[in-house]
Each structure stands twice: as structure tokens, then as C-alpha cells.
Amino acid sequence: MPVISPQQKAYAQYKNNKIMSATAPELTLMLYDGTIKFLNIAEFAIEKGDLQKAHENIIKTEKIIDYLRNTLDMKYPVAQDFENMYSYIDRRLVEANMTKDKEIVTEINGHMHAIRDNWIEVMKRNNVYVKEA
What we know:
The chain is built from five helices and no strands.
């Protein structure tokens, strides 16, 4: 069992508090940020030939997309637009994972950046606090 330093404990507590106190729009933004992080790792892993690491991070991205799809409230018309985007991204993730094609991962990453950036704009227009990176 690994030894956890006091700094690691403090950081874990900070992350937990951040998640627990976040609003629904902020949680969605965190999920988008997570997909981008995992896609970046997958891209780099494919470049370096670490196919297992690429696989693990593509799977993490798939799980987030699956979660986002399952939380859509289909009584709103815009939810179908999100479903269409997520469905396309999910199909491309499966293809990227099967072929370990960096170009597909790069394409998906571009889509996720655009979705995240649009989400930030929606949050701003609705007066939801967005911390600039």
C-alpha cells in the first residue's frame, strides 16, 4: 500500500471539496476538462507507442461521454443535439481505440475543446461564475 504524504492528502481533500461544492454547470465543465485531459494523455501515449496507456485513457473518456449521455434530459430539444454530438464522439472513440489512430484522437479532442468553450460561454451568459485558466 503506497504511503500518502500530507500534501497529497490535502490536495485530495481540496479536489473533493471542489467537486462537492460545484454547481451542475461547473460539474459538466469539469467533465469536459477531464475528457480533454484523458485525450491529451491518449494522444501522447499513442505517439510513444504505449498502447495500454492510450487504451486506458480512451476508455476513461468513453465513460465520461457515456455519463454525459445518460444525464441528458430529453424533454429539452437541445438535448437531442447533445445526444447526436456525444453519439458521434462515442463512435469515434471506439474506432480510435480499436486502431490506436492518433488522428482520430486529435479530431475528438478538437470537438471536446469546442464543446467545452461553448459551455463556458453559456455559463457566462447565464451568470455562472467561470474561473479563467
